[in-house]
Amino acid sequence: MEQGLTREIAAFVVRSRFDDIPERVLAHGVRAIFNGFGTALGGSRDEAIERLSGVLGAYSSGAAATVIGRSERLDMPTAAFLNAAAINVFDFDDTHAGTIIHPTAPVAPAALALAETRRLTGAELLHAFILGAEITCRLGNAVSPGHYNRGWHITATCGIFGAAVAASKLLKLSEEQIVWALGSAAAQSSGLVETLGFMAKSVGVSGAARNGLMSALMAEAGVEGPPCPIEGPRGFLRVTCDAPKPQLVLEGLGTHWEILRNMFKPYPCGVVLNPVIDACLAARSAPGFDAARIARITVRGNPLLKARADRPDVTRGREAQVSAQHAVAVSILRGSAGAAEFSDAAVRASDVRALRAKVAPVEADESIPLDAAELVLTFVDGGNAILREDHASGSPDNPMSDAALRAKFAALAQHGTPELDPAPLAERLWHVHDVGDVAELMDMARR
Amino acid sequence: MEQGLTREIAAFVVRSRFDDIPERVLAHGVRAIFNGFGTALGGSRDEAIERLSGVLGAYSSGAAATVIGRSERLDMPTAAFLNAAAINVFDFDDTHAGTIIHPTAPVAPAALALAETRRLTGAELLHAFILGAEITCRLGNAVSPGHYNRGWHITATCGIFGAAVAASKLLKLSEEQIVWALGSAAAQSSGLVETLGFMAKSVGVSGAARNGLMSALMAEAGVEGPPCPIEGPRGFLRVTCDAPKPQLVLEGLGTHWEILRNMFKPYPCGVVLNPVIDACLAARSAPGFDAARIARITVRGNPLLKARADRPDVTRGREAQVSAQHAVAVSILRGSAGAAEFSDAAVRASDVRALRAKVAPVEADESIPLDAAELVLTFVDGGNAILREDHASGSPDNPMSDAALRAKFAALAQHGTPELDPAPLAERLWHVHDVGDVAELMDMARR
Question: Residues of CATH 1.10.4100.10 domain(s) within chain A?
Fold first, then answer.
């Protein structure tokens, strides 16, 4: 194991200046924060957020930090927790191509709560967020694919380190203190794939934001940690991964930016479903298409598609977000795949249930990349149609345009906070690096 | 994997009545809570607790719950966090023989905070604590020894489930809600062996208490979890252990009590060191013994002794608690092994440093059980002495007497809270099952 890896990370974070960040990395950071605010607005009144907010509000002290899209203000850790939940609740947030990490959900809320409370600038926020997201994705690279395959929800387990990094940068911690923060983060790193499809998923992801922030605050207060919490013999990499690649954490750090492989999603569901939905929407738009003629549908994709989303029996929207069978049926029938298509009501609709039953178990094919998928429609009259999506929309080779991101933001705001005019907030977010006081920005995100 | 394991646990917790608990299990529960209060008093002003209390107090709402041995009252989750840290900070708390779990640290604080806030009885507290500790130890059995050996701090990783169980019982949650609570606990289960010897260890253990409590409170508020968070294909057992034995969780549940294998420690350090210290104290009490004559000391013990405590270079008390070399040197020189012998000052003392340098690397011997150890003293004049401890004090075959436990309590109170008269508190704790209102009990534990 590479001795001193944790300390190298800490040194990088201390040393990094805003001017060191390349223009296109900054631009990506702006898009990530923008997209995260949109998904937070969209998720802000999901039932999971309502319930979590109800119970956690009782253990929050003061009103220092904004809960995006809601009226209450809470303390920093609780606001970070709820904002992470809201960003991620629909699985509509960003996704790092190499690891399937959703980096913004755990990292941005920790940075936002601190930047708001301490009245820091948008540039400081952006800088800290980029560093945190970068470390999150690099740790993810070092434990992929074994870590996720074993059952770790990598967004939460790696995200807590990124949240700690972002908060540490904003707190201007020393190298030693950042090593401690990463030690307390390691002690709290958790999150299981088994919880996906349930509200308990949010508990893992939100805990990463909250506890990463707390790790930095504890380090500031002198709570000491071990020297090698990440690379040590009983440290994060070895304990949570059978074959970690620690060299991937530091290789090219500061010159090669992993955050540039972060993608924005056009559909509110597991990213593995993107090429499947693209293919379904293409199939539906073919001249003369008639869903009533379908006898059977076969989906073929990367083995991860099968591992993650071969889920024929779903009863709720949350499960449907990771169900290829549901995604296929609903997108073919409705011709779109937004929040409404992954609601409880859509899952229960009788036409969707009937078509879902015609979707066969997912076929795994090692030769198909993650951003591609193949769809075979067999018709009752014997004919069939084969559709192939090679680069799913939202993938690195087919990214969402600025206009598409803005439209997604507006639609999410309309879904979650229809009483809020999202246009001024969107404009400020699009220029977040010019914001003088993050507290004023956050004020615009309140109902 | 045994489908329905989580639900079986939940059903057991719902069904259990106080009258179902055998007398000797109740008696053990009383001793565990008593011992835990003692170690909390002793640890209540350790520097780790001071620093954690300083930073966490700012994010605590209201004053519903007592922090043992301190003046401040905080909200339930924060009090649970700090009390778990104080109970465990010296490694002087209880230890389950099969797993080396310290069950009281994560479980009791969650139950105490709830019982105090809701003004429940001592019998309800005792009952909930016993159920939580029992489930903690049984989950530990199911993942031992691979889980700890891999690097998981088993007290924290399993303790969070016990904290959730104890809190669920006090909240009178339904079977379904307890399954949810265990799901949120699974999403937060964490803690690394790499942090032992550092304040970050407390972050893991304390997080288990706090987050187990929060899991139950979230379940009460309707935060749903997956049906099989413990036994599922990506659930706790499989993800954190290469060869789990799920059947050990349920086998004999309610008739065979694992909590009876829980031990109380005579020395404030890693339990693997108990037989080593016994042998050292015996060696020192031999007629004509002279430490100045020692040329070299060899310690032979169970492989876990070597894995856990072969640590020749220590600079602080916290590391010394898991150092065989330090434990040997200080107990031979001082003739005792209490809090003072594991302080920073004791580690730095020049005579201790000199003798520590004469202690060879630990020799591992599969044939030596965990509660035994062998000591070979080689003298400068060529002679040697061999001492063997077969059943360490505090082990199941040589348990601490009630009188010894009471003396330990008094000494810890004197160490941590000299201004508090511990006698009335000790009397109430010794009869905790007769306490009508846990809030009154907790009031006696405040400075």
Answer: 5-264+400-444
User: In CATH, what number does B271-389 get?
Assistant: 3.30.1330.120
User: Where does B5-264+400-443 sit in CATH, by number?
Assistant: 1.10.4100.10
Q: Does A80 touch chain B (CB under 8 A)?
A: no
- Which of A234, A308, A313, A322 has the highest number of chain B CBs within 10 A, making it the mutation to test binding with B? A234
The string of DSSP codes covering A86-146 is HHHTTS-S-EETTT----HHHHHHHHHHHHHHTT--HHHHHHHHHHHHHHHHHHHHHHTTH
Homologous superfamily of A5-264+400-444 in CATH? 2-methylcitrate dehydratase PrpD (1.10.4100.10)
Domain with CATH 3.30.1330.120 in chain A: 271-389
- Of the candidates A153, A184, A195, which has its C-beta nearest B200's C-beta? A184
A348-388 pLDDT per residue, tens: 999 999 999 999 999 999 999 988 999 999 999 989 999 99
A positions 214-243 inside 8 Å of B (CB): 214-215, 217-218, 220-226, 228-229, 232-236, 238-239
Which of A51, A61, A202 shows the shortest C-beta gap to B60? A61
Assess contact for A281 and A341: CB atoms under 8 A. no
Q: Using the beta-carbon criterion (under 8 Å), do A228 and B194 form an inter-chain contact? A: yes
**pLDDT tens sequence across A87-99:** 999 889 999 988 9
- Residue A375 makes CB contacts below 8 A (sequence gap 6+) with A276, A279, A280, A283, A297, A298, A299, A300, A328, A386, A387, A388, A389
Calculate the alpha carbon distances from A219 to A79, A134, A304, A330, B375 in Å. 20, 21, 38, 48, 40
* ∠ CA B162-B166-B171, rounded to 5°: 140
Measure the CA–CA gap between A425 and A422, rounded to whole angstroms.
Answer: 5
Q: CA B205, CA B90: separation in Å to the nearest integer?
A: 13
Q: Report residue A389: phi and psi, to 5°.
A: -110, 120
Question: b vs e for B194-232, b when ≥16 Cβ sit within 10 Å of the residue's Cβ?
Answer: bbbbbbbbbbbbbbbbbbbbbbbbbbbbbbbbbbbbbbb
- Global ipTM: 0.90
pLDDT of residue B218: 98
Contact B223 A152 (CB under 8 A): no
Mean per-residue pLDDT, B160-182: 98
| A192/B193 CB distance under 8 A | no
**Predicted confidence (pLDDT) per residue in B235-283, tens digit:** 999 999 999 999 999 999 999 999 999 999 999 888 899 999 999 999 9
Query: Exposed/middle/buried for A391, CB within 10 Å: 0-12, 13-18, 19+?
Result: middle
pTM: 0.91
